Amino acid sequence: MMPSQDIQQVNSEPVFQQTSDDQLKKIRSALRALRDAVVLLNEHGGLEWWNKSAEDLLCLKPSDKSNSIFDFISAREFRQYYEETTIPNDGVYIESWRAPKRNLKCELTPFGDEKLLIIYDVTRLQHLEKMRRDFVANVSHELRTPLTVMMGYLENFSDQPDMPPHWKRGFELMTQQTTRMNRVVSDLLLLSRIEIEEAHELNYIDVTRLLTHIYDDAQAYNQEYGHNIHLEIDTYDGLYGSEMYLTSALSNLVINAIKYTPKGGNITINWSKTAKGCRFAVEDDGIGIAPKHIARLTERFYRIDKGRSRSTGGTGLGLAIVKHVLYQHEAELQIESVEGKGSIFSAVFPPSYIRSTAIS
Q1: 231/279 same-domain check
Q2: What is the CATH number of the domain that holds 144?
Q3: C-alpha distances in angstroms, 359 versus 234, 270, 285, 321?
Q4: Helix 243-259 and helix 207-221, axial crossing angle in degrees, nearest 10
Q5: Which domain holds residue 154?
Q6: pLDDT tens across 179-221, in order?
Q7: Which long-range contacts (CB under 8 A, 24 or more apart) does 94-98 make?
Q8: pTM exceeds 0.70
Q9: What is the pLDDT of residue 126?
Q10: Are residues 169 and 210 in the same domain?
Q11: What's the rounded Cα separation, in Å, for the pair 190 and 13?
Q12: pLDDT score at 349
């Protein structure tokens, strides 16, 4: 007679198999019901399985199984994205090959030797984003003229020698606030321009000369703070990019270090070569940043200490500008900080944007 334990083990195998089959059917049914296109690719990029949305989007037939995904998505950006993707990431945006005015987002998730491809229609989201950018740019532009007029009249009235003291104080406060608003408008216009220009002309930039100018401007700004500012150039390699935008972004990082470091502190600006390209860094021994704030620092108008930000004249847009400028140059803003000890803001520019300079 077979032991009861063995009977239970033998009988449990079909039950387990049935449960697994049922779960697989449910998963496939759920994937088929998705409005987004889902495609399972083998290790060679061949089609293994797809849902109804993918069938409609890519015009697939049952006989297309094992055919290359590149037979159906020929965009150069997608091929490059496919070849470089080894871990899940933010995906790549491409235009629809069936309707040029529609935009698609492709995301690959590797598992083992295979990859799961999901294609989203993001046309509406991108349209809304464009409307937001246009709105901000238009409003900022419309504010520029009345602000200029107000600042001109306030300056004239403030210079009157016989103005009563209580009026003079009021005009000083109005002048401060209109000046601050003008800075906000200028930064909004710059940020909008950067966002709209998805690509820009790449020109050679002598980084040594650029950082020397930034250093000189920082020393002028630093007069009321009395910091010790050091410039370290460890490589003479240059960059390809937009000098105007990079000047704005790198200057922002240096000015922030000056603003948020107690008087008499130390600030180091460094340009060096790394295994991944070239690195720009600004290090200070200032107030530092709590870990909970670091991930949100590049959000527009995000402030750690609202009172301090206003007193230092910040617009809340500086790091958002830095983030977008670096993104255009395929660099990423990295932030290391210890509260009460200081911070390091850095960006590593990839080799494709570097021009090596041999020193004889």
Answers
A1: yes
A2: 1.10.287.130
A3: 12, 19, 33, 33
A4: 40
A5: 125-196
A6: 888 888 888 888 887 777 766 678 999 999 999 999 999 999 9
A7: 96/121, 97/73, 98/57
A8: no
A9: 75
A10: no
A11: 65
A12: 95
